[in-house]
Amino acid sequence: MKKILLYAFIIMAAAQWFVPLQMLWSRRRVLNQGELFKFRTRPIDPADPFKGRFVSLSFADETVFVKNGSPFHYGQDVYLILGTTAGGHAKIEKVFHHVPSGGRNYLKAKVNYASKENDSLWALALNFPFDEYYMNEFKAPQAEKMYRDSSRLNGDTYAKVKIYNGTGVLEGVYINDRRIEDLITQ
């Protein structure tokens, strides 16, 4: 009986270490092997008593028109093939109901709103899986102020995101090609 309890304890302890280490490893893998995209943003600065201070990101190109006869609905997982604009920002090229084949990196997102425009055209509002950028609680309000100032002056604000096999990991938030943390320290 004591051996069974000892083995159960060892398995439980190993599982408690395995789960967080696996989560860290999968994020690190995306950052190391993922393809880099720049998403244009419109950040705001909320506070959450459980999460701390973060910059909540709203993306400029979260709405897309899709020619597809198959229906879309709220909460549905969709898979996006991304490209880049002439300015170097990410753009959604194709939207699929299932994981696309062909070896290209894709991003898994959720449908926030779907509207059928006509027989074959859908308007989709999407939620990207990376919409919160965590910062030092004292720096986040200053980051929000810098963003507002940059927006008034038509600055280029974007998030760099690495994408690998459907997962997107936020690498940083930038204003006019400078990381927001670097701008705050000046």
Structure in words:
The protein folds into two domains: 1-33; 34-185, no CATH class. Helices cover 27% and strands 39% of the residues. It is built from three helices and twelve strands; from the N terminus they run H-E-E-E-E-E-E-E-E-E-H-E-E-E-H. It has a five-stranded antiparallel beta sheet, with no helix packed on it. Strands 1-10-11-12 form a four-stranded antiparallel beta sheet. A hairpin with a 4-residue loop joins strand 7 (106-116) and strand 8. The longest helix is centred in the first third of the chain and has 32 residues, at 2-33. It is globular and about 65 Å long. The mean pLDDT is 82.
Describe how the helices and strands are arranged.
Blueprint: H1 2-33, E1 35-40, E2 47-48, E3 52-56, E4 63-67, E5 77-84, E6 90-96, E7 106-116, E8 121-127, E9 132-134, H2 140-152, E10 157-164, E11 167-175, E12 178-179, H3 180-185
Antiparallel strand pairs: 1-10, 2-3, 3-9, 4-8, 5-6, 5-7, 7-8, 10-11, 11-12
